[in-house]
Specification:
The protein is an alpha/beta fold. It has twelve helices and 15 strands. It has two domains: 117 residues, Rossmann fold (3-Layer(aba) Sandwich), CATH 3.40.50; 132 residues, Nitrogenase molybdenum iron protein domain (Rossmann fold). Helix content is 41%, strand content 18%. The chain has a six-stranded mixed beta sheet, sandwiched between helices. The chain has a five-stranded mixed beta sheet with strand order 11-7-13-14-15, with helices on both faces. A two-stranded antiparallel ribbon has the order 8-9. Helix 9 links the parallel strand 13 and strand 14. The protein starts with a strand and ends with a strand. The relative contact order is 0.12.
Length: 296
């Protein structure tokens, strides 16, 4: 079976269920596991490099409003790879090639690949996508093992946090302008022993005003900008603190958003564990330096 993944999270799932050998095409963002970098890139960004968060927001907003693509799909690569299965999403126009573009390209090329859309909105649905990919790739047993491990880890968190006070936590998925946490991300805060503020569980992340952020009763602010790993997240968090609009006296943390929070794959459970370490170090110890850094 020849598989093309147009999502970093789907790429991770394919490897996690033991079908990495079948993966022939990925996106430019697929960086985990390292073996994903050895596959042919079929989707690249149409955005200029080196943009600041504010510039990215402006360009993305303008291109969506004008109907322009945010990603380039390499039709020649799709033809050459002759995929049996293409994994994509229809949840967020900013996250991957629009599924309609994939369908149009396959029609143009005369390809008959099965297009599987993965659109989870909660941690439970993230686990459901692992089950679905396992079924499509004839890896049901391996997928079941990944899901069982995830559920056991969540259960350990729940038991360890029994009776612990929930800390009001503001998770920012973008900072210039600020965006709330949405989809499965608030679940990670809840599983980690927090009370997600200004969040939209199961729904899109939404733009919020700095005036709203400033008065949020947050004990902890976590900066998890979509598309960034820890070093960049930390720099963005420091700039956000300097902006002066975060809740006073709140702890401010930066996390590796791409690795453990915003990609709906197997590693989001690690995101919940990191949140538990950030919010309840007395129970779990502090997070590892490669996972999170405290800014204030």
């Amino acid at each position: 079976m020849r598989v093309v993944s147009l999502l970093p999270s789907a790429t991770e799932i394919v490897f996690a269920v033991g079908r990495g050998v079948d993966l022939v095409g990925v996106t430019f963002e697929c960086d985990y596991p390292a073996a994903a970098r050895q596959r042919r890139v079929v989707s690249t960004s149409a955005l200029p490099e080196g943009l600041s968060p504010a510039e990215i927001d402006r360009v993305v907003t303008e291109r969506i409003a004008s109907g322009e693509d945010l990603y380039r799909l390499d039709a020649d690569a799709l033809r050459d790879l002759n995929a049996d299965v293409i994994l994509t999403q229809d949840l967020c126009a900013v996250c991957a090639v629009d599924v309609s573009r994939v369908d149009d390209a396959l029609d143009y090329l005369g390809c008959s690949a099965q297009v599987v859309t993965l659109d989870p909105r909660s941690i439970e649905e993230v686990l459901g996508t692992i089950e679905r990919v396992g079924a499509v790739l004839d890896a049901q047993e391996a997928a079941a093992g990944v899901i069982e491990d995830a559920r056991e880890r969540v259960l350990r968190l729940t038991r360890a946090l029994y009776g612990a006070a929930r800390r009001p936590t503001l998770m920012l998925e973008w900072t210039d302008p600020p965006f709330s946490a949405g989809h499965w991300v608030p679940d990670l805060v809840t599983l980690g022993g927090g009370d997600p503020l200004l969040a939209h569980p199961g729904n899109n992340s939404q733009r919020i005003e700095w005036s709203t952020v400033a008065v949020a009763p947050a004990e902890v602010v976590v900066v998890a900008p979509c598309g960034f790993h820890l070093d960049a997240s930390a720099a963005i968090a420091e700039a956000t603190v300097a902006h002066g609009s975060l809740p006073s006296d709140a702890e401010v943390w930066a996390v590796d958003a791409d690795a453990h929070f915003v990609r709906p794959g197997p590693r989001v459970v690690t995101g919940a564990e990191i949140m538990a370490q950030v919010l309840h170090p007395d129970l779990f110890g502090p997070p590892a330096a490669e996972h999170a850094v405290r800014v204030t």
